[in-house]
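I am hoping you can look over what I have pasted underneath with an eye to the fold:
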Amino acid sequence: MRKKRVLLLSEGFGAGHTQAAYALSSSLRKLSPDVQTKVLELGSFLNPKMAPIIVSAYRKTVISQPRLMGYVYRHQKSFNRLTTLALHRIFYTHTQNIVKQLKPDIIVCTHFIPGAVVSRLKRLDPSLKAPLITVITDYDAHASWISPEVDRYLVSTPEVKAKLRRRSVAAAKIKVTGMPVHPNFWEHPGREEIQKQFSLRNMPTVMVMGGGWGMMNDEVVNEALAGWREKVQLVFCLGQNDKLLRGMKEDPRYSHPNITLLGFTREVDKLMEVSDLLVTKPGGMTCSEGLAKGIPMLFHSPLPGQEEENCRYFTAAGFGEPISSLDVVDRWMERLLGDYGDVRAKRKAHLEEISRFNPLQSAQSIIDMLE
């Protein structure tokens, strides 16, 4: 009997979208051995020479012109016809061939660009019958995610569902499933073995992340954190920012037994498990992973647009706090040192509270559509 095939399409504009695709892939295989999955960053797969240049240009724009990106996010109501046509012709003219070759029973998009392309393909090619699922990987619902050809939207919260409804998406098309976080983040192994693996001490620990692009490069905040290195253990995860990693390794302020400097790692779940506070950019996936681990979060310099919305949601829900000044950092360091037992107890209570959630709900919703 032929296995059911799920094609998961993402893009490399930020690491979170592809992380969500791989999390879904893992969860689908965990739920059903009869499901075959394939994850593709569509632009990178179809145009491996051009895609990294585009992604690099996008990253530089995000870093150097955040207000411009915020303006575009707020004022671009959706992809206009010219943009969609350009994407279709420049990057995705072979998408139809890929779909025909792989013959998926369902197509899942964790980024709005492949979602727009597949929507257009379905509009132009009536023979493409595979249902299209869009997984919104932020705590906001920008209009660029929306298309009449989408059969189901999987969203993180009732608030995101309400935003889609205000944009005239039928309620029957929307399912609140939570964010698709990799199953590893819902597991809670013993701290001792992980501490031994990373040569970490059993003491209050702060994990610092900047996302897959390593955008936690604010010297003022990093230096403020490093100022607590005698009493607090610091783990800096710098992603793919090799330049920042080299610079910090050469900086005597970060040369200390209680400071660990890491580049890209696939073991973020383990590091969150042994950390007591997460200092991070408020990307949708990182925040969701932190939520699953029950770790309190401090949000650093949210980019205008999605990150601002993510920061607003998690702050209002009591899961985190923006770093509005260095006083916030100092207050949390003092809390870790003075009320460590209380911090640990609140984390335990949080984990008990969220244990009622089904971490595989997004994947289960996809399987339900396959049956």
Summary: The longest strand covers residues 4-10. The mean pLDDT is 86. The radius of gyration is 21 Å.
